[in-house]
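User: Design a sequence. Structure:
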């Protein structure tokens, strides 16, 4: 069994209103040194595959089909044996 840690973020050219809201909140709490905030998603998926390469291929397919919107988001993942 493998554990996939998937990180999904907006592409740099996409406006991030949620990130701006968080940044405003941090600044209002006194964190004046905050220059920018981008908000994303973290997803864990346990995959039952015999080989790490198979697990990585499955996770890549999951990201492209459901976990990330390729038009506005980018993703990266780590696959580790459990």
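Assistant: Done.
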């Amino acid at each position: 069994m493998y554990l996939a840690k998937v990180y999904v973020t907006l592409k740099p050219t996409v406006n991030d209103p949620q990130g701006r809201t968080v940044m405003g909140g941090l600044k209002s709490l006194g964190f004046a040194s905050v220059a920018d905030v981008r908000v994303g998603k973290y997803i864990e998926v346990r995959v039952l595959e015999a080989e790490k390469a198979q697990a990585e291929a499955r996770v890549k397919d999951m990201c492209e089909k459901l976990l990330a919107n390729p038009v506005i988001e980018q993703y990266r993942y780590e696959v580790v044996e459990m």
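Residues 2-81 form a domain with the Mth169; Chain: A , fold (CATH 3.30.1280.10). The chain has a mean pLDDT of 98.
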